[in-house]
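General statements about sequence and structure are easier to judge against a single worked case. For one protein, we set the task of working out the structure tokens from the amino acid sequence alone. This step matters because it turns folding into a mapping between discrete strings. The amino acid sequence and the backbone structure tokens for this protein are reproduced below.
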Amino acid sequence: MKPFIDLKEQYRNIKEEILTCINQILESSHYILGENVRQFEDEVKSYLGVEHAIGVASGTDALHLALRALDIGEGDEVITTPFTFFATVEAILYVGAKPVFVDIEDKTYNIDSSKIEEKITSHTKAILPVHIFGCPADMKKINQIAQKYGLRVIEDAAQAFGAKIENKRVGSFGDIGCFSFYPSKNLGCFGDGGMIVTNDSEVAEKIKVLRNHGSKGRYIHEKVGLNSRLDEIQAGVLRIKLRHIEHYNEQRRRKAALYTKLLNEYVITPKEPENTHHVYHLYSIRSSYRDEIKETLLRHGIPSVVYYPVPMHLQKAVSFLGYREGDFPRAEAVSREILSLPIYPELPDEEVYEISQMIIRCLQKNF
């Protein structure tokens, strides 16, 4: 079986840099909130064009802490998408708020900004768009709605590090941007890690306190916080990978363009909205023959993954919200047809051709 994402190849290419960095950290014996965390936060600020960046333990914690920093809690509502990873919804539930879903766009699979206003109530406090698969959501319209109704905006950019709308990077559009550095992400560490970015100094200070047990000074606790600090070794790894992120993302875009060229006549391929820069964390096709394609690839040792087979509103864990099948037909349709193909910077072009030809032959048998 070939890998869905080959992290070993990426490691081999930067192995000496990584080992040197880790050895320096081990020699320093400074493992928590050390110099690499501080420098990585500064480098992310510069890269994204934001005033504050705070490293945390995971992308899930980033979302959770973002909501807490904006004082969102019991009785509040947060508008988001039903087509996302469960962490988006978990974070809203962690603070006692209610996720309110809005169906997705048919082409980008992002939240449909034209349907947001109809879901706003007196309890709505924030909009939480997700830049799904690395494709930027419609932040211009979302920000306009938020400004009109006095709402906060939290961007779930876990899958979209480096994505842009015009020349501005995602994560920098809302009140807060949240990133995940899970190993398979475009910018991934060697374990769990996350980042919160903002231009609001007050919010940034709240998050710094909350991520460190609610403490500003040693053993002095102003709030009940979390133990959610980005690890020093992971920060060191991420600093090295950040130097390569533009190359990694461009390689993903190149592989995606090749897939699209080969498959566009046979399946629904990803769409890139005008003036956006998609970074293809995942390359996801749609077909009513999804299961046949998946089985064909598997027989030839090619993995593929369904992201996401059950949309959030139909998950058993949130059945208490009262949603039913048919409530969000676009998200449900996409979940039945979506299939993600292998894509990573080091993926050989010949494998893109091979995978595409397998899909085409499978579909020709079924047409």
Observations:
- The chain has eleven helices and 14 strands.
- The chain has a mean pLDDT of 97.
